[in-house]
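From the shared-data thread, chain only:
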Amino acid sequence: MAEEKKEVMEEIKVAEVNKAPEIKVSEMNKEEAQLEKADSKYDAENIQVLEGLEAVRKRPGMYIGTTSSAGLHHLVWEIVDNAIDEALAGYCTEVTVAINEGDTITVIDNGRGIPVDVVKKSGLSGVETVYTVLHAGGKFGEGGGYKVSGGLHGVGASVVNALSEWCEVTVHKNGGIYYIKFQNGGKIVEHLQKIGDCDPDKNGTTVTFKPDSTIFTDTTKFEYEIIRDRMRQVAYLNRGIKIIVEDRREADHIREEFCYAGGIKEYVLFINNHKSKLFDEVMYCEGNTAIPVDNGKEAHIYVEVAMQYDDGYSSNVYSFCNNVHTHEGGMHEIGFRDAMRRVVNGYAKEYKFLKDGDDDYTFDDITEGLTCVISVKHPNPQFEGQTKTKLGNSEVRRIVSQVVGDQLNRFFLENPKLARIIMEKIATAANARLAARKAREEIRRKGGLELNTLPGKLADCSSKNPEECELYIVEGNSAGGSAKNGRNRETQAILPLRGKILNVEKAQAKRIFANAEIGNMITAIGGGIDPEFDVTKIRYHKVVIMTDADVDGSHIRILLLTFFYRFMRPLIANGYVYIAQPPLYKVEYHGKQYYAYNDAQLENIKQKLKLKPGYPLQRYKGLGEMDAEQLWDTTMDPAHRKMIRVTLKDAIKAEQIFTDLMGDDVEPRKEFIHTNAKFVKNLDI
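Structure, as tokens:
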């Protein structure tokens, strides 16, 4: 009993992983409804021409993706990218990013400094041009100021200026100090002027800006952890560059420095910090290849790949181009796959790890337990989509394949003992894959995973449109019964769970696929499972975890999140997973019922109603204590419910959290409990 209690305590906070702000799900966007009623007239009067930075303020989402917290922090990345471009060009060695009081941001670099002389084409100084003209900068065409750049859209500085209440730029250049100030979306209030002298050897740019609260209506508060984690990642990807991050908002200022001589090799070690490695060495490949550009000149593509095996089952390949995290992969990842399959299978056949007639190892076999970071620096990257999540340059595939293939093959030949350890790991993975396939086929033969045979426990909805359908995964048959009776049968399906599912972080594949509860979820959701999971085939666009508001409920919730993360990751990545928020308290007063979802809300209700001692107050221990009507009113009615949308903001951080808190190693969980125990209130055991 003590061990069970300890395990529950260790994992109590995990349910907050990837927690997004509470949202209310509305049936229809009001703006869309108005558009449907708009006049169908369309002529020249409907054409708008937006001058200068007006377009950015009119449609900020086109430039920064969103005006939520992610978009707010994207402003920081745009300014930092400019500083890092200077570093990639060889002129910047130190960058400072500071959050100031009032949630303003200051970014300082010791690069060459933005040009202060007049740009002929714009008639403005270089600083004014960069901060007021879209698609202006030193990153375009022959003779541009940068060989490699992440911000090739050329809109970074001007977009930040457009979306700021005010923005100040100070430039140290050629022995002079220059200053300019913008306000109200990029309007110049103080033109560029020389305000002093400095050492001729001191160059650089300092930018301070305050986001516009009329644009970022959700929040203008910067999160130190988000900025710190991103800056640490940038430091790993650019070895030798010092990045300082500060939070100056509190009396005790926070200051952290990141500088890594080992670059992405150290990054892999950081990701694998709490994993049990097959061996300590990080395999590293690097190279550069010249490609022809205009007028017979050449440019270089730089490739770095670092990888290390652990004794786990997860594969984690993270790719970057010009410091941009390419979440959807692209040609550099395809080139890496080509090289790994070619080299590993060739070595396995030559040294008889694969016998005559054996099938080749798959990429999943080869990368089981592998953590890999791929970093490419390209003079002219072609990113698919404005969000730059996929690299499309076809020549990168060949270059990465050649660099990785040649150097990995050399590593195997020079390190036969380590090569044998890797081959034995891959062979074990292949055997497990075959055993898991047999297990799945056996379950399918019995009907457990047959997609045209839905689980008997599932109370399905009548709609067949996934966009409006919701699947509630409910803890316990009692709560499941209330949910079935209280739901909207048109759009809401109910799947009750019996007890806790397996911790898939520790269990073998054969045991996972034989688990009835997991089989029911796989069949109900309908997209299959990794590596064949197809998010376009799922039957519900909201998969809602609904558990009791206690320790056991939190444990079940994280077990489900672990399963989705490991076997249906696109379900989370696409924002289809939600966590229901049932109330903790019910107050009855003068014949009316009031619900509180936390202690603070309960206190507000008490003050509002001026309650006297002895009023009826119920604290819900579980969902089963609510009848169907109460469960609908508080937790399932789209008009009133509260839900948390689970998002995947940072795959690397998520990987570390799931490994630390759900894996075999106990020490990371102890450390997590020690750090976070102070945040736990009203613990029910």
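The CA atoms of residues 40 and 46 lie 11 Å apart.
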